Amino acid sequence: MLMEKKVEIIPASIPKVQKKVVIYARVSTAHGEQLESLFAQISGLTRYVSMVSSWRLVDIYIETQSAKAKSPRKEFARMLKDAESKSFDIVVTKNISRFGRDTVEVLESLRELRKLNIRVLFEQENLDSGEIDNELMISIIESIAQAENESRSENIKWGIQKSVASGKSNLMNRKCYGYDNDENGDLVINEEQAAVVKRVFNFYMGGMSVVGIIRKLQELGFKSPTGKGRWSKGSIDNILTNRKYTGDVELLKEDENSGYYLVEDNNPVIISEEIFNAVQKLRKDRSNVVIDEYGNKTRSHKKYSSKKSAEFNEK
Known about the structure:
Residues 176-289 form the Recombinase domain. By secondary structure, this protein is α/β, with parallel strands linked by helices. The protein contains 10 helices and 11 strands. The chain folds into 2 domains: 19-165, Rossmann fold (3-Layer(aba) Sandwich); 176-311, Putative Large Serine Recombinase, Chain B, Domain 2 (Hect, E3 ligase catalytic domain fold, Alpha-Beta Complex), CATH 3.90.1750. The strands form 4 sheets. It has a 5-stranded mixed β-sheet with strand order 2-1-3-4-5, with helices on both faces. A hairpin with a 5-residue loop joins β6 (179-181) and β7 (187-189).
């Protein structure tokens, strides 16, 4: 007797319709930190789009125009024209201030895109124009516009942080006294200046005060980082505290207690890690600033004397 075979019917799968997505990124200039911010915007938003399987990135509109009203935004205009031809379904941008130059322009653009059934997503504010009614959108945008000036510096900082974290920032190869940039933009040692940097560390390790080092360098005829014969206390302090001389670079460090990025083995070494750390300890020991348990800074009565260091001679 033949067994009846069980036959299972598997229906054909209906392919998901992918939404066509575009990115709009804008900075006010095509220079320096603004370009870092632009790169970070595009990189971050591309990752944002890739995380949604039903989205497909079809275009990126990149604007490097001022926020001034008279400055034409060619890419923005191209995006609106493409919208009319139904070239995409969703616009993704970093925040409201990047999308429009003022409240009126933002609202007019959103209304125009909404008529075409196109949503605009603002990543930073976590807003979707397709899910918010006009009155609420107006209220939100006006509130954000009021705080826009306060957040502008944070926008630039955000861009730098993204770029630094990706390891593609040019900040780590910014030239300082003791180094030059080669044709590729990498740091190389300036032997003449590096010799002065070593003297500064040796003088300080030998007991000289910052004032004593200034006098010594001027006696020896060494030019300061500005190219002048007169050295300043700030120039010496910058040399003594610049970790870049050890080959490592600290980025976005605001104070001793703040977080920062450390890029190791970034450039050729001028000062060893041991000497650099020893100098930082000496600086702390010599400081007459005392911080109490409540974080208050006061001056102690001890004074550091450089009389002994006046007789120090470099070997």
